[in-house]
Amino acid sequence: MRLEGKVALITGGRGGIGRAICRRFEREGAVVFAADLNEGGSLGDAEGASRFLRLDVASEDEVRAAMERVDAEEGRIDILVNAAGIEIEKTIEETSLEEWNRSFAVNVTGTFLTSKHALPLMRAAAQGGPSASIINFGSYDGFIADPGLAAYCATKGAVHALTRAMACDHGPEGIRVNAICPGYIDTPMLQSFFAGDGSGAGGKSIGELQQAVRNVHPMRTYGTPDDIANLVTWLASDEARYASGQLWVLDGGLSAQVQQMRL
Fold this sequence. Notes:
Elements: E1 7-11, H1 16-27, E2 31-36, E3 51-54, H2 60-73, E4 79-82, H3 97-127, E5 132-137, H4 150-170, E6 175-182, H5 188-195, H6 206-216, H7 225-236, E7 247-250
Parallel strand pairs: 1-2, 1-4, 2-3, 4-5, 5-6, 6-7
Helix pairs in contact: 1-7, 2-3, 3-4
């Protein structure tokens, strides 16, 4: 088992991608803390064997309390996965300041806070052997943009820059930092996007929109949470001991192609 004996904290751990990561980590032998706003998360049920932590990543007090619990129970963190995130389907003109600030509070400040307060526990893990690992969640939208996702794109670009900075600062301490940059992944967030104004124009059914999205990918499909969990597991493992400061795009080849060639 790749993660046997390791202690992992996953924010957004009851969401679509977060839950898949928790399940995979458990199968690989890790002690897993699933942190989320509630046990049901975006999937609406409390399934999962991992230890649940109630956590609003935008609250420094709650982040501190979460780290204190992990410290009391395990004394270290080997793996931190910052998977919590929100998406607002609006242009900047349509986005209120409150919505803009909330997007940054969860997607960027949340990543900052959990990483900041996990670092003492991760140093303890790094001293005992192979490097500890922080895995942030960026997006292919941090490189190129989908229409109507201005705040989301801005937050993911910020996470990309923060990831590189953290890797430079904390690599000497034995802490690796990378970011996963997913494309279209079959999660509640994606299904909400299909149903919303972001892609629901033109009178198409949700099924037609789903197929249209599949068709623009060179692989003619979009990804699953397990696809993401596979890459996260490798980055969390000792096999990735030399991988740090990188933005790992997982999008079925979507961002590799010139879209105009499909016209």
